[in-house]
Amino acid sequence: MKCPCQVMPNNNTASSVTDHSSVTNHAVTDHTMKSYANCCQPFHTGSSIPQTAEQLMRSRYSAFVLVDVPYIVATTLPAQQALLDKQAIADWAKQTDWAGLEIVKHTPKVGKRHAQVEFKAFFHADEQQDKHAQGELEQGKTILQAHHELSSFVKATNKLSDKPSNKLDGKSDNQQTQLTQWYFLDPTVSLNISQKQPCICGSGEKYKRCCGRFLD
Ligand SMILES: [Zn+2]
Ligand SMILES: [Zn+2]
To answer: Residue 72 pLDDT > 50, yes or no?
Structure first.
């Protein structure tokens, strides 16, 4: 099985995407389509962890395609995990007709411990959604659309004592909880934190100087 994150709409299709401004060709450089087993699967099963924010972003996209909600939760900043609406994530992942991923830009270093990934997550949508309201269900009339986003990530030490839900063996608990790894900073989760408090990522810096820059 080809990894979901390796699928990219071809140029013909991509040119019909509503957001014309940044349909790029440079991202087509890597023609080798990695298999799921050689790409995101090891991250999903917990046998390895993403080394870069781009890998994490790709694996999160693949998790959306495969409706792996525990993985999506586990790769969000631990301080935000309890606040995620897991049912909404599951519904959205299931209902979306995913069509591919394009990494537009990966900025591996934004300050000391942050990174950003600009991407387009493609999906098929009904051309005329309002027709549904009239009871007219037209099959096969879909257009390609894209979520074009700039996501922020933080490299943080997971100090939680609970095991990551996707871990396979229980042997390496101590090591696992000390691991420094990349987490997604979810801008839709509002945290009740003042600008001067220590940052939620555990860096020891003030929130406003750390993750607060990417969450406000
Ligand atoms: Zn992948
Ligand atoms: Zn932080």
So the answer is: yes
The ligand placed nearest to the CA atom of residue 185 is: 2
**How far, in Å, are 5, 81, 140, 169, 193 from residue 64 at the CA level?**
10, 16, 23, 24, 29
| Structural tokens at position 10 | 């071809």
pLDDT of residue 154: 97
Q: From the CA of 185, how far away is ligand 1's center (Å)?
A: 20
For residue 18, pLDDT over 70 is answered with no
For residue 129, how far is its CA from the centre of ligand 2 (angstroms)?
A: 40
Residue 203: nearest ligand to its CA? 2
Using the mean position of ligand 2's atoms as its centre, give its distance from the Cα of residue 119 in Å: 22
Ligand 1 mean position to 206 CA, how many Å?
A: 34
pLDDT tens-digit map of 51-66: 999 999 999 999 999 9
CA distances for 150 relative to 4, 106, 114, 162, 175, angstroms: 20, 9, 13, 30, 31
Give the range with max mean pLDDT: 125-129, 172-176, 188-192, 203-207. Answer: 203-207
Enter the pTM of the model: 0.79
Q: How far is the CA of 203 from the centre of ligand 2 (A)?
A: 6
159: which residues sit within 8 A by CB, 6+ positions away? 78, 177, 202
